[in-house]
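haha ok so turns out i had the wrong file open the whole time. this is the CORRECT one, sorry everyone. sequence first:
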Amino acid sequence: MTYDRATIWLHWLTALLVAALWTLGQTTELIFDKGTTGRFAMWSSHFTLGALLALIYVVRLIWKLSGQRRLPGVGSPGLVKLAAAGHGVLYLGLAVVLGLGIADAMSRGSNVWGLFHYPQWIDKEWREPLTDFHGLAANILLAVAGLHALIALVHQYVWRDGVLTRMWPALGR
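then structure:
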């Protein structure tokens, strides 16, 4: 028994984008000096991928509420509730990181790829705190996502209950 194709694609696109965005956010300023083309391209990529993640997040919520295949929980009732809570934390964490990222961008005003410029809508004094909060929330989200992945691996290879094959059907073959 697996999730439907849309759910699987949205899950893995979200995971890929979170990892890519975190990597860009952590490395851009270490690699490129301020004012360089490389740094501009990296931050434009971060903003573009962040906008894509926000779109996918909204689509995931709509899909989850309307058409996603629902599968029964695996394990004891307590474990099923814990899994549901963990997924809720992931959804909430994504919302917080995305919201703080948007607020951070609004405190700067930015030029994305030289094609789109949005004005600074939030006072400049919020730049540093918003950047710090966005980074902290992203680090926490990555840690929770890592724990989520670790638990999926435990399900698959220690408990051998096939939970991971629901989201990665090729593992069941």
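The mean pLDDT is 95.
again sry for the mixup
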